[in-house]
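Protein SCAI: C-alpha cells wanted.
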Amino acid sequence: MEQQKRPTENMSQAELSKMKSIDSLQTTFSNTASTTTPSGANTTLNAAGEVATALVSENEEQTIHNQKLVEEFQYLLEKSQSLFSGLRDLPPTGSHRQWRPYFEKTFEVYTKLWKFQQTHRHILEDKVNYGLKRWEVGEIASKIGQLYYHYYLRTSETTYLHEAYVFYEAIHDRQYFKDILEGKNSALMIKKMRFYARFIIVCLLLNKNGNVQKLISELEVLTEEYVKTFKPPDAKEWQMVLEEVSTFTEAEKKLIPINLDKTPDKIEHRLSHTIEERPGEKLRLQEAILVGSYQKQIKFSELTLDMYRMLQSLEREPVFLPDKTKRPNPHKYLLHRPSLSQLLVYISAAFKDTSDHSALLLYMSADGCGYAEQMPPGFDGGVKTSQRHKVDARNYSSNVASHPQGLTTTTPVSNIAPGGGSANAITAGTGTLINNIPATATNTTGSVHNANSGIIGSGAGAITGVSSVAPSSVAMAAAPSTVTGSTTSAIPSGTTASAAGGGGTMSTIAKHTEVSIPSVHCLHPADLVPFTRKPMFLIIDSDHSTGFKTMPNIFDQPLMCLMSPEEYPSSVQDKSEIGSLFTLFLHTPLLGFCSVSDIGNLDQQKWDECVQKVSVMENRIGQLLLADVTVDRSIKRFMTDDFLYYFIVRFVLCGIILRYHSSFKDEKSFPTSAPNLPESIYVSSEIVTLLADLTRIADVGTYFSLPAYATTVDMISSTSTTTNHTTNNDNNSSAMEII
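Answer:
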C-alpha cells in the first residue's frame, strides 16, 4: 500500500508549521494551568474558611442571645407565677394600702412578660430554644384576665371587669387552648375547662347572655370529652358546675319578658345615669357587705341570685372620665353562708374602714330566726347564719328538720385563686368566683366571698375570688383569701346576750331565768348595735325581717333598715328559688312589677314605655320624700348618696305596687322600714295615677285594685288618645282624598 501516503505527507509546509504552533500553545497553556491552580485553590479555601468561621461565630452569638432571651422569659414567667400565687396571702379585709402595692407590682411583671413574649415569640416557639406552646401563651393571657378580675373584686370598678373580658375573649377567639385535647393530658384539659368557667362568670357579671349560652354549650362538649377520655374522679363535680350555671341562667331569663322577635327585653342592671344634686350634708356609701344565706336559693359558684342582683345594683356602668370627676363604687364583700363569727369579722373590718361622712351597708338575704318564748331585748328575732354543731333543741327545734347543720359545698367555679389557696371574692364587690373548679370540700361554716377579692369558696384551701375586685374559681378571685372553718362556739348559759353587745349586762340577763337563751348561730339586732356608731344602712330580706324593726339608735348616727315582707301570697311563693321579690324590686322595679303581674311577653316598644313610666315614678317619689318635712333626717341624709337614694325610692315604689295589687292584702305582705316613711307617700294620688298608666301600658289592669280617680283619669287619657288618633286618621284620609 505504498501508493497510500500518510496525511501529513500530503500537507504543505505551511500547514505543518501551523500545527506545531498549536501544539506548542497547548503545552504552554497546560503548564501554566498546572502552575497556577494550587495558589487559587488556597485563596478560595481561605475565603471559605473565613466565611465559615464568621458563620459559626454568628451562630454562636445568636445561640447565646437566644439563650439569654429564654432565660429572661423564664425569669419573668416564674416571677409572675410567684406573685400571682401570693395574691391568696393578701388579707381579705383592710385598707387598699395593704394590697394595692402588691397588685401594682404583679401587674407590672405581667405587662413585661406579655410584651416580651409578643416581641420574641418566634424565638421562644422554636423547639431548639424553648418550644413555647400555644396553650402556654393562653395561660399567661388567662392569668392577666384573672388579675383584672381580682382587681375588679377589690375595687368594684367595672372598668377592670371589662378588661378581664377583653383578655378572655381574645383567648377564646384565637383558640389558644384549641389543641389541648391532642396531648391527652388531663391537667391541661382542666385548665381549659376552668378558663371556660371563669369566662362564663365574667360574661354573667357583664350581662352578656348570648356569650354565656354559647360558652355553656362549648363547656358541655369539653366536659363530655374530658369524662370520656380520662374517666376522672371529679366528673360529677364538673357535671354539677354545668348544672348550676345552666339553672342560674335559666332562672334569670324567666323574669325577663320576651318581645315579639323572641328575644329578652333590654334591662339596665347598673346605675347608668347621674342624679341631680340633693340638699343636705353629703353622705357616701363606702362599704357594703352582701350576705346570701338562703338554703334553697339557686346559685352559681358561691353567688346566689339575690347577691348577683344586689352586686350590680351597687355599681355604675363604666364611664371613661378623668379621675377627678369619677364617683367610685362602694367597696363590697360577698359572703355566701358565713358563720356568725365570720360575718362579725367582716362587719368589724368594714366598720373600721368606713371613714367620716361615709356609710356602711349590710344586706342580708337569709332564712329568719324567731322564738316562741320571751327573749332579752334585741334578741327576739334575727336571721340565721351557717353553723357547725347541731342546734340546741331548746332554741332551734322548729328549724332543725328543714336546715341541715353541716354544709357541703363545691369549690366555686369562679374562685380560681392563684396557686390553689383561697381567694376572696363577682363579686361584686364581689367575691370569689371560680378558682378551684371541681374540688369538693366539706365546709362547716360556709364560704366567704370577699368583694375585695373574688367569689368566695368554701372549705379550707378553696380557690375563690367576686367583689370590689378579684377573681376566683369560675371567674377569678381578686384577693385570694377566703375565710373558712371558723365557728361560733357556744357562750355559757346566761352570758349569750351581752356577748353580742346589745341587750343588757351579763348579770342582768342571768337573773332573768324565765327568759330563754337565743341561738348563738343567729344574727340579732343587738349584735349590730356596736356598729351603729357610724352611719349604717340595713337591708333585711328574710321571713323574719321585722325582728330588726326595733333596733335602737343609741349613738344618734344615721341609721335605717329596709325590711322585706315576711309573707307572700301563694301566687309568688313558688318563685322564691329564683330570687326574692323584694330584692328584685330594689334591683329593677319593672321586673318586680312584671313578676307580680305575670308578664311574660311584652314588645320592645311597650317595654320602653314602661321603663320611661317607672323612671318618672322614681323621680317623683324622690322629690316627694325630699320635700316632705316629716321624713326622718336620717332618711334624707342617706338619700344624698346615689345608690342609697335609689334603694329608698325603689323600696317605696315596691310598697305602692304591692299595696294596690289584688293578691297582696295582709300587712305582713308589705315591706316595712325603720324609721317609718310617711303613709302619705304610699297613697299619693300622683304616684297612684302613674301606676295606673303603667298597668294600662302593660295591659295588666285586672291584677290591681286602683282607686276610682286613678282609673278615671286613665280612662280619660286613653279615650283622649284614641280620639286624637281617630281624628288624625280622618284628617289623613281627607287629605288623601283631596290629593
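DSSP finds 23 helices and 16 strands in the chain. The first helix runs from residue 7 to 10.

Cheers.
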